[in-house]
Write a structure and sequence with these properties.
CATH topology of the domain at 144-303: OB fold (Dihydrolipoamide Acetyltransferase, E2P)
Number of helices: 33
Strand content: 15-25%
CATH architecture of the domain at 144-303: Beta Barrel
GO molecular function: ATP binding; hydrolase activity; single-stranded DNA binding; single-stranded DNA helicase activity
EC number: 3.6.4.12
Radius of gyration: 40 Å
Shape: elongated
Main location: nucleus
CATH superfamily of the domain at 144-303: Nucleic acid-binding proteins
Largest sheet: 5 strands, mixed, barrel
Keywords: ATP-binding, DNA damage, DNA repair, DNA-binding, Helicase, Hydrolase, Meiosis, Nucleotide-binding, Nucleus
CATH class of the domain at 144-303: Mainly Beta
Subcellular location: Nucleus
Structural class: alpha+beta
Distance between the termini: 96 Å
Helix content: 25-40%
């Protein structure tokens, strides 16, 4: 608060009380209670008089001075707890419990009276009301699941996520009607928006029941409906229970206060409505006419994104709203004391404590848990130097790929429980609209409204998607949400962009059941390269047989199922001791980071994981108030590592190492500094980020031979290798003039072309199963796609005489077609290319039959040898006159019939 504001407040406090006649409220009473006659014995009149006395005091005048005027709508935001400290008026608080709507109207009337008594009387127009927006109400925030019939007509505060927002529409609250009999005008009020014309004319001489609405006298207000969904956390989650929702009605200055995905606190009055009588007009004869629904008439709404950051912060917007704020928790002094003590006690060991506290039931996988931890804390969201302020995402995306049964789903569920705003969905039961945003139609108003999906609901949080490989149709919907951090919608005439600043934590199983190192990550997951490149970290978990590792895991599992805590402690020590004695395994290549993350069997005998609520508070505090800045030494480490990756990336099949990897390194380093609540990224933070990135790259580009190949992200797949092998085998078949090859010849050819498959025998069996190779004998295969095999199939005589005659005729027609190609100077290579397709082309067959019609009376004899066929072709060519030399595509040379066959 600035010094000028403090001085103005002190000056107002020293002012003498305002002289207001508390009994003269006749000019404000009709505005707030138009259908109630003024009575001095009415409790509302008594309450207004008491409130006028309070608001006339210096403290009360300070409250009145905060009245806001927004386009002619006057409102006063009142903190109930603050009002209770400065106003000792128990009568008001009792009436707020009994009659909250009328008590708030009395407060508005008192403020109105005081403002009229002040010097600036012209600020209020005739008939304008002052809306009291009471927040931080008398009762604490209650859960949506507890909203039952006992709360009807009571003032409550609820907190939840906005899942649906309707369009803003005008709601008529007052309109005049003209009697069709006498022409008198009758003004009617529509409480709760229910249209109710006069039943009969009020004139004595006229009892007409027909009225015409005077639409020019209609007094509309802005109206909007939203739907809140409760915030589910692990400590209060009930299995099998559908999350509770409640409809909220916003009016006047409360509209457009939130969008789908926002976390809001709504203070209002619980109302009831009957869909059959109140909305349907009472004409329905349904047996559910006695069934009512609860909704919330909003008095005030507080958005979690509305708390501003300090003005001198580089992360604040020009309009004072936050760019990254996770105000999902109110930190009590006890919470802040825990955060301070935890950071002071563990110091540089905080990272290990948090990593070991995430899903302790899963043994090992320290680096995977470290990546999940960094995704929970996230990087810093900031703007680029462009004038349009294109946002640069700070959220970290992680995908875990591996064999079944390695605990991927448990890791995701644990991460969703720890996150201050975590959502867990399963891919096989998720649609495109359920993942991003849906447009639904209101059955009453026929308006379209947005319903937020999982990614939008997890805004500024974590969205865990299990079975990611089962939702290939929805992968394209995540491209924009993962990089641009928003979801653009263009449906049913609605165009909007919703915030989706969430970290994606996905788990997927390989397409073949088990991960195949011979295939790339894209081929194992059937995922596009564009989507895979958006993940900052890709971890691959393999179920490899390891006697020592299997023993440690089995001991850990048995300790979890043990009923005695002593056995659990002993088993845990055995696991840790065996872990310390184990030799350096494959993952020890990451060096010191793994050794620092693992628990020491001597020092950590009594290690207790951090409770989930405390860990959630710590993460929320770090994301809300810690914004690390890059130091020069840390930037050099990240830049040098990125340049080394680019130097090693010499693959001709693509460049998988792009600038996205450098941005990922920056985000990882920022998250690592956030874990320790540091404002500056140190060299150790950069080194830890580099080691975790090395682990991800090692898993992503490791082939079946244990060699890191940076071309594997978008390189040759097994399908391309099969095509390359068959082309080479076809060429070899033409050179050797045979179509059968032994397995030794196949091995030799595979070595010569550098075939990249894990097992040649399995590769050949796969080609045999799909029909490209046919097994002709023990370790002998015939290729089906070669010209030689097709010629052999045509030229070999069969036992069926009719089939032989047909083949003979077809062969003769092909010879005539060849002669026609020669006469018309068709290039030789074109004929060779289309020779195999000749018999399947009806047009060529008709042309050949027309050319050969004179010679059909004497068809050529059946030929079964190559030399005889050559002779027949030469005789056929000679009998039709001289033929000019044929020029091929690769150079001028005379036609040689022997080479053609």
């Amino acid at each position: 608060m600035h010094g000028a504001n403090v001085e103005s407040i002190i000056t107002k406090m020293k002012q003498p009380p305002l002289m207001v006649d508390r009994c003269d409220i006749g000019n404000t009473w009709p505005i707030y209670f138009p259908e109630v006659d003024l009575s001095f014995q009415d409790w509302k009149y008594i309450l207004i008089s008491k409130l006028v006395c309070f608001f006339a005091t210096p403290r009360g005048q300070h409250v009145v001075s905060q009245v806001k005027d927004e386009d002619g709508i006057f409102s006063l935001s009142v903190d109930f707890q603050h009002l209770k400290k400065i106003c000792d008026l128990e009568y008001l608080y009792a009436k707020l419990e009994e009659h909250p709507k009328e008590a708030l109207l009395c407060m508005g009337a008192a403020v109105h009276k005081v403002m009229l008594a002040q010097e600036d009387e012209g600020t209020l127009e005739d008939g304008v009301k002052i809306n009291i927006r009471l927040h931080n109400g008398p009762e604490p925030t209650i859960a949506l699941r507890n909203l039952k019939a006992a709360y009807i007509d009571r003032l409550v505060s609820v907190r939840g996520t906005v899942v649906k927002v309707s369009t803003v529409r005008p709601l008529v609250v007052r309109m005049a009607f003209q009697c069709a009999g006498c022409g008198a005008d009758i003004t009617r009020l529509f409480p709760d928006g229910k249209f109710s014309p006069p039943p009969t004319c009020a004139m004595r001489c006229c009892k007409s029941r027909t009225f015409t609405p005077i639409r020019s006298t209609a007094q509309p207000i802005d109206f909007q409906k939203i739907r809140l969904q409760e915030l589910l956390k692990s400590e209060n989650h009930e299995e099998g229970r559908v999350p509770r929702t409640v409809e909220c009605e916003l009016t006047e200055d409360l509209v457009d206060a939130c969008i789908p995905g926002d976390v809001v606190t709504v203070t209002g009055i619980i109302r009831q409505i009957n869909n059959y009588t109140d909305i349907g007009g009472g004409k329905s004869k349904s047996k559910f006419q006695g069934l009512y629904y609860l909704y919330l008439e909003a008095i005030s709404i507080k958005n979690s994104k509305s708390q501003p950051v300090p003005e001198d912060s580089q992360y604040s917007d020009s309009d004072g709203r936050v760019t990254e704020m996770l105000d999902l928790f109110s930190f009590s002094p006890r919470d802040l004391e825990f955060i301070v003590k935890f950071s002071e006690e563990y110091g540089s060991d905080i990272f290990r404590q948090i990593v070991q506290s995430i899903c302790p039931s899963i043994y090992g996988h320290e680096l995977v848990k470290a990546g999940i931890t960094l995704a929970l804390f996230g990087g810093v969201r900031k703007h680029s130097s462009d004038q349009n302020k294109v946002p640069v995402r700070g959220d970290i995306h992680v995908i875990i790929v591996g064999d079944p049964g390695l605990g991927k789903s448990q890791l995701l569920q644990a991460a969703a429980a720890v996150s201050p705003r975590g959502i867990y969905v399963c891919g096989n039961a998720t649609t495109n609209a359920g993942l991003t945003v849906a447009v639904v139609k209101d059955r009453l108003t026929n308006d379209y409204a947005f319903e937020a999906g999982a990614v939008v609901l997890a805004d500024c949080g974590l969205c865990c998607i299990d079975e990611f490989d089962k939702m290939s149709a929805e992968h394209q919907a995540l491209l924009e949400a993962m990089e641009q951090q928003c979801v653009s919608v263009a449906k049913a005439g609605l165009l909007a962009s919703l915030s989706a600043r969430t970290s994606i934590l996905a788990a997927a199983n390989p397409a073949g059941g088990h991960y195949n190192r011979a295939k790339t990550v894209n081929e194992n997951l059937k995922m596009s390269a564009a989507l895979l490149s958006r993940f900052d970290l890709v971890f691959i978990l393999l179920d490899k047989p390891d006697e020592l590792q299997d023993k440690r895991v089995s001991e850990h599992i048995m300790s979890l199922h043990s009923k005695h805590r002593e056995h659990f402690s002993v088993a845990k020590r055995l696991c840790r001791a065996s872990q310390a004695d184990r030799e350096i395994d494959v993952r020890a290549r990451s060096g010191s980071l793994i050794s620092r993350l693992r628990l020491d069997p001597k020092k950590d005998r009594e290690f207790v994981p951090l409770p989930v609520p405390l860990l959630r508070k710590y993460i929320a505090y770090a994301r809300s108030y810690v914004f690390p800045r890059m130091s020069r030494s840390a930037a050099e480490i990240l830049q040098n590592f990125y340049l080394k990756l680019r130097d090693h990336n010499t693959s001709a099949d693509g460049t998988p190492i792009t600038a996205r990897q450098l941005e990922s390194l920056v985000r990882l380093a920022e998250a690592r500094a956030r874990v320790d609540l540091r404002e500056e990224i140190t060299e150790q933070d950069a080194l830890d980020a580099v080691e975790i990135m090395k682990e991800s790259l090692y898993d992503k580009y490791l082939d079946e031979h244990g060699v890191v190949d940076f071309g594997r992200s978008g390189g040759m797949s097994q399908q391309k290798e099969a095509k390359r092998f068959l082309n080479a085998l076809n060429k070899q078949s033409e050179l050797d003039e045979k179509d059968c090859f032994s397995i030794a010849e196949i091995y030799s050819l595979a070595d010569r072309i550098g075939l990249r498959v894990p097992d040649i025998d399995t590769f050949v069996d796969n080609l045999n199963s799909v029909g490209f190779l046919i097994k002709k004998g023990p370790r002998t295969y015939q290729i089906q796609a070669s010209i030689h095999s097709q010629y052999t199939r045509w030229a070999t005589p069969t036992r069926n005489s009719k089939a032989s005659a047909a083949l003979s005729l077809l062969l003769f027609l092909s010879c005539v077609a060849f002669k026609a190609c020669c006469l018309h100077s068709i290039p030789l290579m074109h004929f060779v290319d289309h020779f195999n397709n000749f018999l399947t082309s009806p047009l060529l067959a008709q042309l050949a039959l027309k050319e050969a019609r004179p010679a059909l009376s004497q068809p050529p004899p059946w030929v079964s040898q190559r030399s005889v066929l050559i002779q027949e072709l030469n005789n056929l060519m000679a009998s039709n006159g001289p033929v000019s030399p044929l020029v091929a595509d690769d150079g001028a040379q005379d036609l040689d019939m022997g080479k053609i066959i």
